[in-house]
Design goal:
The protein is of the alpha+beta class and about 750 residues long. Helices cover about 15% and strands about 30% of the residues. The chain has 11 helices and 45 strands. A 5-stranded mixed beta sheet has the order 1-4-5-11-10, with no helix packed on it. Strands 3, 6, 7, 12 and 13 form a 5-stranded antiparallel beta sheet that branches. Helix 1 packs across helix 3 (about 40-50), helix 4 runs antiparallel to helix 5 and helix 4 (about 245-255) runs antiparallel to helix 6. The longest helix is centred in the middle third of the chain and has 14 residues, at about 275-290. The termini are far apart. This is Tip attachment protein J domain-containing protein. It comes from Sphingomonas hankookensis.
Length: about 750
């Protein structure tokens, strides 16, 4: 471990670099007994060799996760040992299960359940059978389970003084040597009556609420700078119960031992942990009221467990060379400035995160005591300003696996954590910047500013994420992301409280993570159960019952209704009024109604003449969007249509016309943009397949006679082509664009006019 010690000395000395000042690296190396100057690069090589000796224990490994869920009472002899953090409820793993034998006609069954390793835990608070709380007199359950259930418990002392024994029924194979030392466990005996009167017919669903493992808190250690108390990192008997994510995370990194052997956690020596960062995170978590709780197992990936623990505290772990560190979301003071003279190579600076990561809404999932410790989804946490900027809802679900809502607590913690995840998804990064050697002392989590116009980042605050050292050049490649200092106000807008930070003015609270005020137009139907639910005569419009999915994902059921008192031979827009739950027919173009999200557009329809015939309309002139005239014709089902890519930023694959559906996005040009270089993604809102005569135009796909092709103007297939039999064709409507692109066998893109979703014009 000599190399790791040298690395730790160098990094610790370099941490004393003053902000923007002269490097103390050479002096620090000399103080460590290493030649200064050029020898610094040699020491850097040593750091590179030994940088992961301790933190390598956190490298991902394959392995079990304990199987099942926390609330499943399961029996798995190969299961890893569960470890319980904080106050939580769960069923545990059955390690012994036997009937009492023929002597008493097997009327008793005994089950021994391990609740948690790394004992002793703090307490077993309560027992439940089929979600009913149990009380006991000695080992015997009181009513309503009196005479049917017995239970004894242990917290997991090492060693335990005796093996668990309910004292009821025979227990084949269970001996006084089965003490289960260091394991919190319960033994339950159930009685069965073959006559089936007031008895268990099968095992009830058991669950125990516990206060979990004890942890090391440096703030309660008088040997730690600023600490006060009896705790010591190397003496588990001095540790205490904690729900603080950073206290639990630090202890997971150190690990728990039984008889001198590590039984849970990672096993990193305290000198390879940047304890001060965990203390900082613990203080922030206490101030914000952030806690953690739940169950993991010794078979889970150790790094993922640490990430889940710190996620509950708004932070994340960091592998910083030979040192384990962490970072917490909190307002920070910039401690240095990166100038143009500090940059010694090419930088990589993406302007933003990938679009798929820039969500504007998060659905947090967490464990709820009110739901009997099951994982439940919360309400969507959405940012109104982000939604307005994006133009559409982008939502994803994030599991906060060790976040719990206990008792009557509110969900403020999950809202705040989701708020930080929303904000951080908008920060630009990762940004890579090679810096001079003097920057080796700065650590992940430090906040700096940029003063270099060439980077395009001048004046911005940065959070350092990762630091390394190139031994060949002495450069320090630093990975960072932008840090918007105003985001903390937005995250805590619901409470109006910010974490305490010295010398930082708290920003005004500009926004709220809540459902945004509407600034969108009327809703569109993307899929419906009845293709043509609207009919009309000269003075009425009739709508039949149907279901539809609208463009915000809701599924609505529309009732039957007749609208009367209309004018013959007139065009109406039929809409569903969401506020009043009724259909309305508004004379076209109904611009005010279309501009309001109060309405769902059902369809445009025309009342008949008094004699029952319907008015006719002229063919769409060139340059018109065709929306009121029925538009173009229809391609054969085997023709191929150009789709947009998954990000809707360019052309994607082609699809057979017969397979296209409402809700898909095509790549095309708006009719007003034809002849220009402006292309975009446009939504298909209607499709219908039917039989039609076919026309052929040179080598283009076959179409219906009225199909319109763009060639510096619109041309109909039955004008420029010739008959080609009959077949199945597809009518489709493309919102906004009114066009789509057919691709022929030679790969040519042929712009075609869409077909308005009007039954009498197909």
């Amino acid at each position: 471990m000599r190399v790791a010690k040298i690395a730790a000395v160098v990094i610790a000395v370099a941490a004393a670099i003053p902000s923007g000042g002269t490097s103390l690296l050479a002096a620090g190396v000399a103080a460590a007994g290493v030649a200064s100057g050029a020898a610094a690069v040699a020491v850097a090589s040593a750091i590179a060799i030994g940088s992961n000796l301790a933190v390598g224990l956190l490298s991902p490994r394959t392995g079990g996760t304990g199987g099942g869920t926390q609330t499943d009472w399961s029996a798995d002899p190969r299961a890893p040992i569960p470890i319980r953090f904080g106050r939580t409820g769960g069923a545990g793993n059955i390690v012994y299960r036997k009937g009492s034998g023929e002597a008493d006609k097997n009327q008793y069954q005994t089950l021994t359940t391990v609740l948690s390793g790394a004992g002793p835990i703090d307490a077993i608070e309560a027992s439940y059978a089929d979600k009913k709380p149990l009380t006991f007199t000695g080992a015997a359950a009181n009513a309503p389970f009196s005479g049917w259930l017995w239970e004894v418990r242990q917290l997991g002392l090492c060693p335990e003084p005796a093996a668990l024994n309910t004292g009821v029924g025979n227990k084949p194979g269970w001996t006084a040597d089965h003490k289960l030392s260091s394991l919190a466990a319960v033994q339950t005996t159930l009685r069965y009556d073959s006559k089936g009167k007031g008895t268990f017919m099968t095992e009830p669903g058991m669950l125990w609420v516990t206060r979990g493992v004890r942890c090391y808190d440096p703030r309660l250690d008088s040997t730690y700078p600023g600490g006060s108390g009896p705790q010591r990192w190397f003496d588990q008997t001095t540790w205490a119960f904690s729900k603080n994510p950073y206290v639990v995370g630090l202890t997971w990194a150190i690990g728990w031992k039984a008889n001198g052997v590590r039984v849970a956690g990672v096993g990193i020596h305290i000198r390879n942990i940047e304890v001060s960062r965990f203390v900082e995170g613990a203080n922030v978590a206490d101030f914000n009221g952030w806690t953690c709780g739940g169950e993991v197992s010794t078979g889970d990936d150790k790094w993922q467990v640490l990430k889940s623990i710190l996620q509950a505290g708004g932070g994340e772990p960091i592998k910083d060379g030979a040192t384990l560190s962490c970072m917490v979301n909190a307002p920070r003071v910039p401690i240095a400035t990166i100038g143009r003279d500090d940059i010694v190579g090419e930088i990589s600076a993406p302007k933003t995160q990938p679009r798929r990561d820039r969500v504007n809404g998060i659905i947090p999932t967490y464990r709820s005591e009110a739901h009997f410790w099951e994982v439940v989804p919360g309400e969507v946490v959405r940012d109104a300003a982000m939604l307005a900027k994006d133009g559409d809802e982008r939502t994803k679900e994030i599991a906060y696996g060790l976040v719990q809502v206990e008792g009557s607590d509110d969900v403020q913690q999950t809202v705040e954590l989701a708020g930080y995840d929303l904000e951080n998804a908008r920060e630009a990064g990762p940004i890579t910047m090679p810096l001079k050697l003097r920057w080796i002392g700065f650590r992940a989590g430090d906040c700096v500013t940029i003063d270099a116009d060439e980077t395009g980042l001048s004046g911005k605050q940065m959070i350092l994420l990762k630091r390394s050292l190139d031994p060949a050049t002495g450069m320090v490649p630093m990975t960072m992301r932008t840090e918007d200092p105003t985001k903390h106000g937005r995250v805590f807008a619901r409470t109006g409280t910010l974490p305490p930070v010295p010398y930082v003015d708290r920003p005004d609270v500009p926004g709220d993570y809540s459902l945004p005020p509407s600034n969108r137009a009327a809703h569109l139907i993307v899929r419906q159960s009845v293709a043509y639910p609207v009919d009309s005569d000269d003075t009425t419009i009739t709508i039949e019952t149907f279901e539809a999915t609208i463009d915000d994902g809701r599924v609505l059921t529309f009732p039957a209704q007749t609208i009367t008192g209309l004018t013959a031979a007139s065009v109406y827009l039929v809409l569903w009024d969401l506020d009043n739950s009724t259909f309305v027919a508004v004379p076209a173009p109904a611009l005010n109604e279309v501009a309001s999200d109060r309405y769902v557009i059902i369809r445009e329809t025309t009342t008949s003449n008094a004699d029952g015939t319907y008015p006719t309309y002229p063919t769409a002139p060139g340059g018109d969007n065709g929306g009121g005239y029925g538009g173009g014709g229809c391609p054969i089902v085997t023709a191929r249509i150009l789709l947009a890519n998954t990000d809707r930023t360019g052309p994607g694959d082609t699809i057979e016309a017969g397979k296209i559906e409402a809700g898909m996005w095509v790549w095309s040009q708006r009719e007003a943009d034809l002849g220009t270089g402006k292309w975009g993604a446009y939504l298909v809102t209607f499709t219908r397949v039917f039989d039609s005569p076919l026309y052929a135009v040179d080598d283009r796909p076959l179409t219906s006679p009225s199909h319109l092709w763009w060639d510096n103007g619109w041309s109909r297939s039955d004008v420029i082509g010739k008959p080609a039999g009959s077949g199945r064709v597809v009518a489709l409507t493309v919102a906004d664009a009114a066009t789509y692109v057919l691709v022929d066998g030679a790969g040519r893109r042929l712009i075609s006019h869409n077909k308005q979703a009007e039954a009498n014009q197909v």
